[in-house]
Hints:
The structure holds two protein chains of two kinds. By secondary structure, chain A is α/β, with parallel strands linked by helices. Chain A is about 30% helix and about 20% strand. In chain A, helix 6 links the parallel strand 5 (about 170-175) and strand 6 (about 195-200). By secondary structure, chain B is an alpha/beta fold. At the A-B interface, strand 1, strand 2, helix 2, helix 4 and helix 10 of A face helix 1, strand 9, helix 9, helix 11 and helix 12 of B.
Amino acid sequence: MKNNNCKAKDYDSDEVIRWCPGCGDYAILSSVKKVLADLGKKKEEVVFISGIGCSSRFPYYIDTYGMHSIHGRAVAIATGVKIQNPKLSVWAITGDGDGLAIGGNHFIHAIRRNININILIFNNEIYGLTKGQYSPTSKLGLNTSTSPNGTLEKPFNPAILALGAGATFFARSTASEPKHLYEVLKRAESHCGTSVVEIYQNCVIFNDGAFEDFLGKENKENNTISLKNGKPMVFGKEFNQTLQIVNNNIIVGNKIEDAIIHDEKNLSQSLLLATLDEVKPLGVIRCIDDTEYATSISNSIENKTQKTTSELLYSGATWRIN
Amino acid sequence: MKNVLEHIVILFSGDSGDGIQLTGSQFSGTSAKMGNDIATFPDYPSEIRAPSGTTFGVSGFQVHIGAKQIYTPGDRPDVLVAMNPAALKVKLPLLKKGATIIIDDDAFNRSGFKKAGYNIETLNDLKELQNFKLIHAPITSQTQKALSQINLDNKSKRRCKNFYALGLCYFMFSRNQDTTKTWIKEKFKGNKALIEANIKALEAGYHYAETIETSTSVYHIPEAPLKKGIYRQINGNLGIAWGLMQAAEASGLDLFLGSYPITPATEILQELSKRGDFGVKTFQAEDEIAAICASIGASFSGALAATTTSGPGLALKSEALNLAVMLELPIVVVNVQRGGPSTGLPTKTEQADLLQTLYGRNGESPLIVVAASGAGDTFDMAFHAARLSLEHMTPVVLLSDGYIANSSEPWRIPDFKENYNHINTNLVETPYKAYKPYARNKQMVRPWAIPGMPFMQHRIGGLEKDYNTGEVSYVPENHEKMVEARAKKLDLVTSNIPKQTLEGKGQGKLLIISWGSTYGAIKTAVNYLQEEGHEITLAHLKYLNPFPSNLSDIVERFERILIPELNKGQLLKVINAKYHCNAKSYSKIQGLPFTITELINVFKSELEHEK
């Protein structure tokens, strides 16, 4: 329900945007603004907290409350903002380095608590702002300025990491498909709990083409599947490929009648989708209702009548000296 | 016949599983209620339950009770209660010559001696005991005998022996058993057998002492001349928790504590987590960094936000603390210092985080630093730490330490209407157009607009901002201007803190400058020498950054300055750098507080050296 008449452009701030031309961040910014407008969010009720990195310049470019904080800590700061005022719409803007390397601890613990914030991971599989070092999501063997002979580290799969931490909402989208991203972000904001959205975002300068294998024009239809809850998992140029579960494994098949029906509440299915590599599932991989943290804290307090400190100090073992 | 004493120091000691801390706090609580002044000092190992009977598992609780005002737990105990040979071995060197030692005979057997590392068969083999007065009591066996009719397992019965020892001391020092009996009934509510067992053990110990009265003395410590009022016991951690609660009330804000458990600060988090019915929100974070970051977030959202920690935690928090400096948001950081570096001595006291607190951040990063001078001072200092933070929109670090945290004393509940009823905040009350987050008032303080308020949307962050617009700026001159602005803002706090007071004359031969938990011992030593006619004055600092405005005048009026600290001379470095006054240091870094005797000797030789 709309409670205000803001249009997406009303959320523009007066700062000049300084991302590189062609950066996927532009598309994410406009999708977020559109979601806020369409959900009728008042500008003053929205808070964006970011860490450090290219993605973390985000709050400057949107006319809500915002904080560009320190490396890795956006989620922890957002947690405090939300606990103090659960009515706010709180967004943590982070990247693969900020959110999964230096801020990895806060990421898993926020998810575990299920605090109602949106965590947007702008995943470009590289450190952009420091000019191209490998990140925790860089593909094994990637040549970067700190891995001249290729990385020796296996990347994180953010989906499995989030699901392992107990995510009540995990979705994947891409900056290259603003419409899809818009729908996913709308779902994320509407979900009451920690909503994690991994957004593939191409870094045109330091890791261009990182997602080409499945997001490139030629490859997209055969190598990605757009998930829809309650709908069979069918994809491909000809709509003749399916995802099936055989012997507890998820495989690509071609019998429509064997296609799995997407169930966002089915954890084992979500986990299988999260591990799937040959086809990239996009969309909401998991969404379940569960107790939300900030509201639980508030309830534990507001149920009681508030007392004064002096009442506390005069209670219990006191004595008078005359 | 009863001997009347002006004051006495009793040290309870035994295994860390013997309930020594409980025994000590019961004894001190009862004494406080009976009108004595008290000061306590618990000393326990960092291991939760070290192997029983070993020296490294010895737990101690020292209590000083007086018919006069006392300021320390006492240098050397007059009485030792030793529940086993290990306790005797560890504590014997601390005792006053001729002290009384009460021992649990049942524990002083061959196996006990062996575990303690004594190569003896009986106590008679311990030659050094000749200088002490021994009271033998079969505490363990007598407790079991007294409880033989009670339906409890043997282990539970044995665990009542601390109450037997307590009862014994209650008779010897003419204490009333009622407070403890009430406590037992409350503590073990619903468990009749345990209530009965503990009370019986207490009474049995009391009667045993009565029976052997002929062979020992009974002491009486009259009431101390304390200020009229209603009192309760306070320790440093509780005082900080309550002071923050009062500050939240006085400022009309919600109190938010983000914290991560760390010795010796954890009790503040524990206390505040019980205070949901006072509107307090606590958040036990995943780490020290998240704890302060959540507090910064809560502060951004308009809470009185605090985070509590000890030295290693402060190190982890320093980057975020610096962010708070840059954001110019209010936040109270409590550092309950312990022995360092690194993990150091977690359960021991030290004052070696002063320089870390003042300077341990990148860039020019000034913040307010205040220090509590004792358990009874923590409520006040926590309140004022919060007040300064809110009034000046800056982080404040409140320094406490393990000694303050754990020691308890009778505390007169203050007049809330008079002293702690109002704090001004810089919250924007009505929205206005063209809000500039870093527009400064005369005090260089910025306005605090919080999310939820229409038209006031703004972005702040760790990047340098333009002095006028508050937008990100890399302009060289602007950066210098902002560095100066943050420094000046801190300097202006001086007008909002009390002038430095002196104990003693305003000029003379020797000025002692001190800070933190050393106050009690230093004050007592200074008073003693003043009574002897020496020209010695004490300036005990509570405001460490900025310093009180009159401190520069004070240091000029004395011939010599001595700064005793439980570190390698950290305040000394700051004072000497600032006032060029050539102060000298007396330092001690043993994880232990100063004793009055050592200070008297040091001050005396400093006074004599002068001649």
